[in-house]
Amino acid sequence: MSQALDLIGIFVFALSGALVGVRRRLDVVGMTVLAEMTALGGGILRDLILNVRPAAFSSTGYVVVPAVAAAIVFFWHPQVERVMPAVDVLDAAGLGLFCAVGTEKAMNYGLSPLHGALLGVTTAVGGGILRDVLAGQIPLLLYDRQLYAVPAMLGSAVMAALYTLDLHGWPATLASAVLAFGLRIAAMRLRLRAPLARGVASDQGP
Amino acid sequence: MSQALDLIGIFVFALSGALVGVRRRLDVVGMTVLAEMTALGGGILRDLILNVRPAAFSSTGYVVVPAVAAAIVFFWHPQVERVMPAVDVLDAAGLGLFCAVGTEKAMNYGLSPLHGALLGVTTAVGGGILRDVLAGQIPLLLYDRQLYAVPAMLGSAVMAALYTLDLHGWPATLASAVLAFGLRIAAMRLRLRAPLARGVASDQGP
Amino acid sequence: MSQALDLIGIFVFALSGALVGVRRRLDVVGMTVLAEMTALGGGILRDLILNVRPAAFSSTGYVVVPAVAAAIVFFWHPQVERVMPAVDVLDAAGLGLFCAVGTEKAMNYGLSPLHGALLGVTTAVGGGILRDVLAGQIPLLLYDRQLYAVPAMLGSAVMAALYTLDLHGWPATLASAVLAFGLRIAAMRLRLRAPLARGVASDQGP
């Protein structure tokens, strides 16, 4: 069950990576690399920091699913672009799931709540950052003012707090994931925006 | 013997890194950083994922050889540019060697054939990706449509298959390396190209 | 004491990261990510290569101080820009400290003097490289011809030499740090410049 949710999150993240590949006119190799890195990069960073072998390198599904996503985008990217609003909702679900699961894993390995939450956020957003760096772009997360990292931070913080209260296992994970998911959806619907530094005019992009 | 081959591969990869440094008008520090990262980056990524100390940090030759390559390019880059066709052949040899050696090392550490082959490809192409990211370019591998990763994939897959059949040691490594090398040379000679996503016109670069 | 010096170095590196964020018009999330990565990135790279859990993930101060620096820059960046000459002096102090401390830690973990010094330089300059890659720029270190890495190399080399002579502990660290600091300040005052490859005209940037 949790494995199935993981794979859905990985699939959706991989779709976003492969689509960036199409938009940047990358070839099939580039699309596949972006799909894999977007989907698996956050978890790999988390596991490198925890000093354990990355989960992606002991699961067949984790490697195959992004390749399937890249193949789908390769053949049907116009159709995938059309269903992007639905993909964005699934992406928010992946964000919620990965920040909760990442925080829990980090705390299982003995990190403090602060560092556990930090690593949970890294799990959720690290793949997207690697995707953009590889695609030659400033990571969207750093400038687009959408609330993407903030819901992950709050979800991770709640997971860390529940863990500290000895509430872990799937109900706590699910509650934290749903919270981050709900906040992300609310931020999209309400067009909430992260502030720029004081005095910086907001009419131009980087 | 295997050590000497390794050092030749490292030297050639370092030349390509230092040359990118010259073309991008980097200073001597930048040239040296690119030479070291191009030559050693793939192996460092592999070893970080295997959760062992990177081989580059326990070998003197691995660190000194790229610095020598950077010094040669510093003084004689026009001459090095002139012999690039020969360097490309040596680069193909490095590609073949590193994908085979990387796959074998990964499987020695208990990875599955699928993950071993994946890490073999990472060993072979990771340094070039880091080189381009540090030089402020989209990694060539992702868009230039040359078959560079694909020969490494096939060589790694053959190495993984041989390993599964209990055929490891230098004959298997050599066979896999030669296969990847030959495919890379064939791809260059025949100008084989990786496809773009369906419907994407091929007349413009990213 | 050493902890306090560390935190000052981290604070100053984080200021530089957050300022790059303002100049690139990133939002508050981007500023905070750049502050954290600039301050902690070099040490995280060092610890990943040493195959130990990064120090940043077991210290509260290491995570909180860059966030405070980002908040200060968020509200008072014009004032921080005005005191940049002073910040540059503190940055040189951080450079000196981190190269010495990084080399010592690496040698404590059994690396050779060569590799210890290399990892000391990585500790000192790695955060700045990550800052620039994330901000979509070629790392300043690779092209700006200032002597920034070179003082760190010399400080690290002296630390490694002292360590080999069994002179470690704070006097050796302090001496190496002060040496690198002094060289960096001298390089700034005297406008010393790293050379470009032979024959490359120096009138254009990358």
Q: Could you characterize what this model shows?
A:
The structure is a homotrimer of 206-residue chains. Chain A is globular and about 50 Å long. With 206 residues, chain A is mainly α. Chain A has one domain. In chain A, helix 2 runs antiparallel to helix 5. The termini of chain A are far apart. The interface between B and C is medium-sized, with 32 and 34 residues. Chains A, B, C: It is a multi-pass membrane protein. Chains A, B, C: Its main location: membrane. Chains A, B, C: It is found in: Cell membrane.
Relevant terms:
homotrimer; 206 residues; mainly alpha; 76% helix; globular
Major β-sheet of chain A, in short? Answer: none
**Tally of individual domains of chain A:** 1
> Structural class of the secondary structure composition of chain A?
mainly alpha
The residue-averaged pLDDT of chain A reads 92
Strand content of chain A: under 5%
Please bin the fraction of helical residues of chain A.
Answer: over 70%
What's the number of extended β-strand segments of chain A? Answer: 0
**Topology pattern of chain A, helix = H, strand = E:** HHHHHHHH
Poorly predicted ranges of chain A: none
**Shape assignment of chain A:** globular
Q: How widely separated are the two ends of chain A?
A: 42 Å
Number of helices in the DSSP assignment of chain A: 8
Largest interface: which pair? A-B, 32 and 34 residues
InterPro entries (chains A, B, C): Gly_transporter (IPR005115)
Main location (chains A, B, C): membrane
Membrane topology (chains A, B, C): Multi-pass membrane protein
Family (chains A, B, C): Belongs to the UPF0126 family.
